[in-house]
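Inverse folding, one chain.
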């Protein structure tokens, strides 16, 4: 297989994913809107591209890892975008979390250039991106996925073909329903225990291996207690995902009352200026309702 890959977007996720591609022996061409972020990666072996178009001209596989639907549309379909440089039979792998409907439209546009698209959003957070253990849910042609599997295997551990274009994104949105519900349960549980004097570190240790254990509890519970609200995954980005969930819920007439409520609780967090915090900051909203703060025992 050709070991050349382009990557667009070196944020919290894209940067460690690019590093893992370099470590796996890929020749990586990188583009980032803010060019200063590429410099460090160049010292680690990457080649700099001046535009997504240039990255597409030079590579048979181009990954996009940017924020939202309009951002993916802009780097693929916009001026100096991938579509201007892509060669026939090349593949765009969009690993951002975006709209399934928009994904299908982008795939159609790329098809007009005889190029392919995979939607391959990820779960596993910044830690999973650094460790190369992401879960990757893929929509698109199964044979194209097989061609790209070594690239994805450099970044992720569980790579699952779900179905046609858009199905990877729909599965990622299902993942976000699970994340939101689970995170809210962790917040309510910790506030409930705190107000009644429970030592939260001991309580997490006691329950995390049992039926109530979860990634959210094990990873974000301790951060809430330490009042560490640095983002692994930003509130604004989860809200973007929950908006996509609500769009799908409305479009397909699938009521999701609990998820809708949690989306609103996150609105309260954004209204308080905490949109750039990590999602664990949701605990602040639940704390305000109960007039208590979760914290470490002195
Ligand atoms: P991030 O740290 O905010 O990085 C976003 C990246 O996209 C930056 O490189 C940014 O460039 C670039 N970008 C945004 N808009 C752009 C535009 N219009 N044109 C060109 N470049 C643009 O976000 P992230 O946490 O890496 O998340 C990236 C994607 O992965 C999102 O869709 C997110 O939902 C998804 N995701 C994130 C996590 C997580 O835990 N963080 C987990 C799973 C999935 P600049 O440097 O110029 O701003």
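Residues assigned per position:
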């Amino acid at each position: 297989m050709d070991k050349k890959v382009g990557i667009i977007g070196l944020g919290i996720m894209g940067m460690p994913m690019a590093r893992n591609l370099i470590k796996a022996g890929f020749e990586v061409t990188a583009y980032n809107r803010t060019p200063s972020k590429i410099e460090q990666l160049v010292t680690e072996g990457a080649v700099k591209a001046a535009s997504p178009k240039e990255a597409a001209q030079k590579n048979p596989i181009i990954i996009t890892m940017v924020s939202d639907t309009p951002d993916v549309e802009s780097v693929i379909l916009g001026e100096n975008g991938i579509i201007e440089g892509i060669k026939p039979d090349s593949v765009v792998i969009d690993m951002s979390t975006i709209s399934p409907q928009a994904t299908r439209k982008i795939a159609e546009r790329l098809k007009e250039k005889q190029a392919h698209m995979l939607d391959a959003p990820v779960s596993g957070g910044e830690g999973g991106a650094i460790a190369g253990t992401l879960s990757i849910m893929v929509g698109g042609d199964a044979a194209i996925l097989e061609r790209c599997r070594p690239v994805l295997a450099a970044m992720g551990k569980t790579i699952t073909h779900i179905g046609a274009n858009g199905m990877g994104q729909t599965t990622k949105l299902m993942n976000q329903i699970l994340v939101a519900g689970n995170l809210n349960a962790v917040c309510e549980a910790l506030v409930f225990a705190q107000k009644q004097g429970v030592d939260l570190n001991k309580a997490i240790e006691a329950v995390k291996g049992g039926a109530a254990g979860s990634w959210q509890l094990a990873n974000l519970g301790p951060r809430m207690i330490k009042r560490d609200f640095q983002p692994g995954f930003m509130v604004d980005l989860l809200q973007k995902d929950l908006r996509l969930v609500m769009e799908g819920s409305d479009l397909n007439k699938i009521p999701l009352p609990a998820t809708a409520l949690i989306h609103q609780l996150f609105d309260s967090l954004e209204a308080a200026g905490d949109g750039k915090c990590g999602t664990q900051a949701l605990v602040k909203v639940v704390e305000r309702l109960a007039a208590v703060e979760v914290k470490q025992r002195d």
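The radius of gyration is 20 Å. The mean pLDDT is 97.
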